[in-house]
């Protein structure tokens, strides 16, 4: 019989928190999950899910255009932004309901309140002011868009939060940043007919990706009509006298647009959480410091997902939650595995990737082989669309292991999921070579690139 109100109290009802709470509840533990906003977290409410729905919406104009080459003819088309937003809202409300029900069905107490730590075992429920105690605590409060408060005029700008619910679709938008969110939203807004410009401080968008993916996507986006400005940043945003905004850049440009969106990374949600009172340490970015089991410096307090700023991805938070359950409630200490995480950028075309970029592989291995194919996908032959797919395998020459796989093109995200299995299993290039192709597909290129396009030995291309 525990002296605490709960065996486990979870702060944050997003991907990591809900999974931890639900699994603990289904093991018969007394569990509560507190959420101050909406169950489902960033992913469901204002992240992955609504984003993907908007990606689908933004792809239709190209589908309509492509259909002509296949014999179709159609009349005038039109797009209703408000209908899309309403449809998206219905879907996320449905998913939110499922998240709640899953918790309730596992016997978890669902608390619609902000929760803050009072000490290492005590939590204050902000809505009622009541305090409760728990033997173990999980902090899974996620992150939020960096508001870039140092930028004069930042209060005139939106982040991805507002982008999902704009009252009107802007005629023009300037998006700052070169990461996942900036690139995905630039493609979404452009596809929906918005005059779109992206401004990024570095030399090439998507700094942590393989160079071929970065350059290939940059080219494809520009060919569609998205303007990309590199090596520049916004210095100030002001209201224009005639309406709209003007963004002044370091390089002296004045960009007049309806909307400016900042996509400059996300910060962990730890402010005002009572971490100091509980003795939980954070790093200089405010992220909770955890060990390899997701345990904070206070042994019965764990932190999962984006609030720890390890890898900001939904499946990673879920995985960390499952490892926490194994460790704490199943007597099976399990460390989350952050190696070889497959991921996708839902740009148009998509990027799907797993493992090392060519540049990283060169630094890690004395000799690598690069297998690369660039081709026009079959659908583009009749549609007449000028688009290229790029596929790339990076192989450690000594072990023959495929250490990186990168795809730019339609369904690259779907391919990345399956490539993830192959790389996780440690497949060699010879395993790829003896795998029969699925014909006719684009993915068959991945198993038919028999000769290396080039080798890199000690950093030199040979
Ligand atoms: P990212 O870390 O991907 O990108 C942030 C961008 O902002 C980078 O281009 C960075 O430049 C730039 N930047 C940061 N600070 C400044 C600054 N002070 N001035 C100018 N530029 C700056 O973050 P996002 O916000 O795009 O996304 C957050 C996280 O959410 C991602 O890391 C990802 O894990 C996750 N996510 C995943 C998605 C998916 O799986 N498809 C989709 C959306 C988000 P630089 O590169 O030079 O550092």
UniProtKB/TrEMBL annotation:
Q: Which GO terms describe its cellular component?
A: cytosol
Keywords of the record, alphabetical order, are:
Disulfide bond, FAD, Flavoprotein, NAD, NADP, Nucleotide-binding, Oxidoreductase, Redox-active center
Bound how, and how many: what does the cofactor note say?
Binds 1 FAD per subunit.
Recall the GO molecular function terms of this protein's record.
Answer: flavin adenine dinucleotide binding; glutathione-disulfide reductase (NADPH) activity; NADP binding
Sites where the protein binds NAD(+): 177-184, 265
Q: Which Gene3D superfamilies does UniProt cross-reference here?
A: 3.30.390.30, FAD/NAD(P)-binding domain (3.50.50.60)
Names of required cofactors: FAD
Give the intrachain disulfide bonds.
43-48
Under InterPro entries, the record lists:
FAD/NAD-bd_sf (IPR036188), FAD/NAD-binding_dom (IPR023753), FAD/NAD-linked_Rdtase_dimer_sf (IPR016156), GSHR (IPR006324), GSHR/TRXR-like (IPR046952), Pyr_nuc-diS_OxRdtase (IPR001100), Pyr_nucl-diS_OxRdtase_dimer (IPR004099), Pyr_OxRdtase_I_AS (IPR012999)
Q: What class of enzyme is it?
A: oxidoreductase
State the family it belongs to.
Answer: Belongs to the class-I pyridine nucleotide-disulfide oxidoreductase family.
Subunit structure, interactors included? Homodimer.
Function (record text): Catalyzes the reduction of glutathione disulfide (GSSG) to reduced glutathione (GSH).
Q: What is this protein called?
A: Glutathione reductase
User: What organism is recorded for this protein?
Assistant: Pseudorhizobium banfieldiae
């Amino acid at each position: 019989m525990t002296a605490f109100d709960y065996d486990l109290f979870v702060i944050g009802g997003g991907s990591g928190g809900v999974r931890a709470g639900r699994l603990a509840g289904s093991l018969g533990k007394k569990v509560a999950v507190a959420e101050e906003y909406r169950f489902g977290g960033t992913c469901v409410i204002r992240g992955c899910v609504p984003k993907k729905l908007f990606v689908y919406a933004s792809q239709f104009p190209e589908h309509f255009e492509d259909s002509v080459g296949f014999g179709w003819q159609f009349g005038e088309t039109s797009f209703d932004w408000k209908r899309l937003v309403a449809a998206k809202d219905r879907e996320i409300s449905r998913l939110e309901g499922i998240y709640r029900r899953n918790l309730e069905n596992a016997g978890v107490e669902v608390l619609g309140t902000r929760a803050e730590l009072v000490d290492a075992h005590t939590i204050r429920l902000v809505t009622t002011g009541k305090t409760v105690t728990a033997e173990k605590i999980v902090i899974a409060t996620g992150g939020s868009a960096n508001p870039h408060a140092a930028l004069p005029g930042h209060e005139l700008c939106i982040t991805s939060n507002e982008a999902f619910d704009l009252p009107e679709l802007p005629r023009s938008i300037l998006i700052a940043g070169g990461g996942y969110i900036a690139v995905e939203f630039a493609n979404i807004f452009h596809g929906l007919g918005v005059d779109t410009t992206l401004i990024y401080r570095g030399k090439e968008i998507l700094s942590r990706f393989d160079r071929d993916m970065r350059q290939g996507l940059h080219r494809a986006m520009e060919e569609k009509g998205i303007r990309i400005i590199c090596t520049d940043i916004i210095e100030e945003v002001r209201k224009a006298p005639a309406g709209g905004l003007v963004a002044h850049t370091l390089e002296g440009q004045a960009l007049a647009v309806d909307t400016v969106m900042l996509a400059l990374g996300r910060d962990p949600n730890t402010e005002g959480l009572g971490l100091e009172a509980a003795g939980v340490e954070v790093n200089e970015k405010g992220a909770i410091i955890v060990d390899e089991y997701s345990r904070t410096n206070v042994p019965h307090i764990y932190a999962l997902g984006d609030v720890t700023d390890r890898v900001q991805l939904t499946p990673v938070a879920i995985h960390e939650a499952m490892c926490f359950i194994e460790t704490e409630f199943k007597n099976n200490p399990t460390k989350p595995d952050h190696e070889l995480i497959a991921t996708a950028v839902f740009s148009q075309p998509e990027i799907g990737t797993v493992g090392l970029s060519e540049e990283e592989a060169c630094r890690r291995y004395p000799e690598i082989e690069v297998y690369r194919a660039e081709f026009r996908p079959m659908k583009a032959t009749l549609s007449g669309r000028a688009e290229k797919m790029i596929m790339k395998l990076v192989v450690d020459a000594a072990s023959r292991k495929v250490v990186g796989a990168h795809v730019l093109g339609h369904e690259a995200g779907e391919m990345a999921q399956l490539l993830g299995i192959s790389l996780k299993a440690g497949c060699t290039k010879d395993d790829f070579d003896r795998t029969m192709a699925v014909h006719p597909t684009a993915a068959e290129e991945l198993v038919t690139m028999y000769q290396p396009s080039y080798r890199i030995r000690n950093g030199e291309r040979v």
